[in-house]
Amino acid sequence: MKNKAIITDIQGCFTLRNGVQMPYLGLGTYKADNEQEVVDAVKGALKLGYRHIDTASAYKNEEGVGKGIKESGVNREEIFVVTKVWNADQGYETTLKAFDESLNRLGLEYLDLYLIHWPVKGKYKETWKALEYLYEQKKIRAIGVSNFLKHHLEDLMKDCKIVPMVNQMEFHPLLVQQNLIDFCNKNSIQYESWSPFMQGKIFEQDICNDLAKKYGKSVAQIILRWNLQKGVVAIPKSVHINRITSNVDIFDFELSEEDINFLDSLETGQRSGPDPDNFNF
């Protein structure tokens, strides 16, 4: 199994198809409130060396994320900022408007990555055209999708000008979807995980405890390392500085191929979030 990139430290990156460097470890902000909680989480993460912050208009905390970035004192150019267009805003004109509103809430002049949050039937192609336009206008450095299964990607790729650069999916040992990863790799679509800990449910299982003991690491650290060694970008969500700190302590060990295969073998197809083929928001 080949690593897609050398895994070095917290600021290491995978290279997207267009040459943009995407830090392979980031901070997720799902369910972090828009008040001081998300501001402190973002500032704390950036102080620790994180350079990738993921939010979405649906999280209702873009203002707080933007404030945290501004107050961190870290140069904007050093931070990879991601947000997503929500389902209700999909369509060409409405996506352009939603993008401007997200940028305004974040207090930024451009985005590093903009994603379609879910594949809304009958709308995601028009939404994608809006993303292509924004990319061509240089308002976004990279464009991608989230929660797109293989058939969604194939449908989009039939008549898009630009193939998505990223696909952000639910990904953890019980939902590996290796066929989808292989399809993305073959088409130079960077795979990225949301909910790498199954929204905390992974810690209720004993399956990774032996590996944690073997490597002298926490289960969370084992899973994040597995993400990176599989060439998957990870954005663990936390507002607790001790966890945000612990999540980056993954650069002083390497999982064996045998242990990566073991984690892959735990696949059951179990989701902690909605099914991309059956969601209704």
Please characterize this protein's 3D structure:
This protein is an alpha/beta fold. The protein has one domain: TIM Barrel (Alpha-Beta Barrel). The chain is 36% helix and 13% strand. The chain contains 10 helices and 10 strands. The chain has an 8-stranded parallel beta sheet. The protein is globular and about 55 Å long. The protein starts with 12 loop residues before the first strand and ends in a 17-residue tail after the last helix. One of its GO terms (molecular function) is oxidoreductase activity, acting on the CH-OH group of donors, NAD or NADP as acceptor. Keywords: NADP, Oxidoreductase. This is Aldo/keto reductase. Belongs to the aldo/keto reductase family.
Mean pLDDT rating: 96
Q: Count the strands?
A: 10
- Named at the architecture level, the CATH assignment is Alpha-Beta Barrel
CATH T-level fold name: TIM Barrel
GO molecular function, one term: oxidoreductase activity, acting on the CH-OH group of donors, NAD or NADP as acceptor
Keywords: NADP, Oxidoreductase
Site (Lowers pKa of active site Tyr): 84
Binding site for substrate: 117
Which helices and strands occur, and which strands form pairs?
Blueprint lengths: L12 E3 L5 E3 L3 E2 L7 H13 L3 E3 L7 H11 L7 E6 L6 H15 L6 E4 L7 H13 L6 E4 L3 H8 L8 E5 L7 H9 L3 E5 L14 H7 L3 H11 L3 E2 L6 H6 L10 H8 L17
Parallel strand pairs: 3-4, 4-5, 5-6, 6-7, 7-8, 8-9, 9-10
Antiparallel strand pairs: 1-2
Helix pairs in contact: 1-2, 2-3, 3-4
Task: Please outline what is shown here.
With 281 residues, this protein is an alpha/beta fold. It contains 10 helices and 10 strands.
